[in-house]
Design goal:
about 190 residues; alpha+beta; Nuclear Transport Factor 2, Chain: A; 9 strands
């Protein structure tokens, strides 16, 4: 049986100097993730998970951060993700956009590897009253710039009992932005995993 764990990675030893250093950790290689089509790790012809370079890994971290609702997942620290409730409870779109801009900026600047220097060109469009599309330009260390896009929606997929109240065809669409993820939820097949 083939080994299911990734191979070829060296064991990284973190010293006390690494922990107490004021120098940013920077871009580290990681595993390649496909947010647009499959919502799973990218694989080669032998079904091995592909690596990503440091900048692609940073972009993946940013997208994951923007697609995770803060305080809802024990696997993440309280600095990771954004809060949706204040955004969709705002009395106007201007107020909602202001709250979202602040939340996204704070969440991305909390990057533990300190790769993000600043964020600009935040553009928010509202395709529906309960969803928005956020585009931003991130400037990182070593003069790296990336553009990211996140589709953010109010949690319309579950009622208070956790049962799906939207037809499966509406959230199982893999052809567009909605198909790969919704903030706070990852959509895989017909199941919603929180």
């Amino acid at each position: 049986m083939p080994n299911l764990l990734p191979t070829g990675y060296e064991i990284e030893v973190i010293t006390e100097d690494d922990i107490t250093s004021d120098k940013p950790i920077g871009y580290r290689n990681g595993l390649s993730f496909d947010y647009e089509l499959t919502g799973d790790f990218r694989r080669d012809g032998k079904n091995r998970i592909l690596d990503s370079d440091g900048v692609e890994s940073w972009k993946s971290w940013v997208i994951n951060c923007m697609h995770t609702e803060r305080y809802k997942h024990l696997a993440y620290s309280s600095d990771f993700g954004i809060e949706l409730d204040p955004v969709f409870a705002a009395e106007s779109r201007e107020e909602a956009e202001s709250i979202l801009t602040r939340q996204v900026t704070e969440a991305i600047l909390a990057d533990p590897y300190e790769r993000t220097e600043y964020i600009d060109n935040i553009e928010i469009t509202w395709p529906r009253p309960d969803s928005l599309l956020l585009r931003a330009t991130l400037h990182g260390i070593q003069d790296v710039t990336i553009d990211v896009t996140a589709y953010i929606t109010k949690s319309i997929f579950s009622d208070e009992l956790g049962e799906t109240n939207v037809p499966a065809d509406e959230y199982n669409d893999t052809s567009g932005v909605l198909g790969y993820g919704v903030l706070g939820e990852m959509i895989l097949g017909r199941d919603i995993i929180r």
